[in-house]
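Consider the subject:
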Amino acid sequence: MHFDDRLATVLRNRAGGERAAKTQFRQLIDLLGERPQAGDKALKAAAYLRLIALGEMISVADRAAIVGENGWRFRNPELVKWFGEAHPHIAAAALYRANLTGEEWEEIIPRLPIRARGFLRHRRDLPVAAERVLDALGVSDRALPQPVLEQLGEKAAMPPLPVEEPEDTPEENLEEPAPLSLGTLETPEAPADEKPAPEERPVEAGKEGIRALVDRIEAFQKVRSERVLDEDNPRLPLGEKDAAPHARPLDQFVFGSDTDGRIDWAESGIAQMVGGIDIAHAADEQELALRALRMRQPLSGLAVHLRGAARIEGDWIVDATPRFTRSEGRFYGYVGRFRRAVSQVEDRREAEADRLRQLLHELRTPVNAMQGYAEIIQQQVIGPVPHEYRAIAATIAGDAAHILAGFEELDRLAKLETGSLELEAGNADFAAIARKQVAQLQPVLSPRVARFDTDLGNGRAPISLSESEAERLAWRLLATLAGTLSAGEAVAIKMETGPEQVEFALSLPSGLRSAEDIFSVETRANSGALSAGIFGAGFSLRLARAEARAAGGELVRLDGALVLSLPLLTGVERLPSPEGQPDNATG
């Protein structure tokens, strides 16, 4: 039995931060952008609702950049229509990537908003049926209308007074009226946060009609040229290194080129920096790039060094695909993506993590199927089942759940170590969480005469993690060490809160103290009530170290102890304990 549960798998995960939200946004539009197929309509509706929720976590500019990335080919009319009703920047990027048939365009274009139809008129590769619908709806390229003299003011409406020219007047002294400019003729009032506009140039006496109008137009253009342009209307980076100190680092951008490999289009905010760059001459291996351009071959992993503005200067990797017209098959340039070059170690680590995530996705499918069938048998959904078989099915369902939990931990570690997952931010008291969990573990250790010797104090240790993330990190450390305790053994725990960070020190049990690398040991739990996971204590501690680093801290081994250090939440006034004791646990 074959079934596609990719959409359900994506929806099952929760986006804990902006980076995770962007990843899930890409996954959803990738799955929804395929050709419409039979499936659960409720699941698809949930996917669109999740896209709306993710839109509240991702800015419009970032969503437009994601939708405009190279490689998307939206073949689902429902998704194209949904994007067409979004923000104009997002709609323009999506309609540029839409790849529908003529019949689908005929059906969807009349249902698109008017502004979205205008975006389609800029495409030159639409089917004939789509162009016929656009023509029938009267959609044409946007252009400013010709000015109407009656709307320019009373002075403009007045015919120019006849002037008799003396015969001895030389031609070079005659003033030809300047061409009229489009736009508002009256100087608008400057807002309070902008630089006050300079006074208009006074109109000389005796100049009326067209000449006075021209002077007013020149004064308006001078005022407009002197205004400070905002980020939505940027200036060319001509030596203004500090013009935009708030600009974010640029990791990648999408571009298009002409037939000679010269960039003639890029996404919003980047075009003015990279326009006109010759990809072949900027490449490290120019001969290889020139040969690929001549042969109309794809560019894959081409190393390029860019010079210019601070945001684009440096080493890049180019991946691009040649474009051909659909009707004649004529080559008309490349479209692709620039991405920042990384070291070989980071690139290899990212590739390994990506392969691991793909493997886990493939493994989850059969395990989910086994768990589902086992639960059907155990719960007697189809019909009566003997108790013996129900017991076996319950064991299989439990084992499947245990395996899926291990897969989740593997996936979490891969994402944390490659920086593709951010922990959920919040305001958690790590000291209170540690005291609560130690109290929960003490009764479990009592039958083995094992214990925790704690010195945690009564102060607070606020950290910038949510309650769930902080509890998960503390429990991973405490439960892992508690599971490896031998009979009659004790673990000393001490917490010290400084001005900038909190240190949580735990002495190592005898089963871990002799290990050369504590983050790779395969020690299993001595008690069934406590488990370090299916991969052993070393993996759990490595995952705890990755979580600590993602929170801005560190987990290290110092001689016979593990020391977890986490930065305290700045700007939070530490409150005294209920007993009125000072906020420290230095002991």
In short: The longest strand covers residues 314-324. The two ends are 63 Å apart (CA to CA).
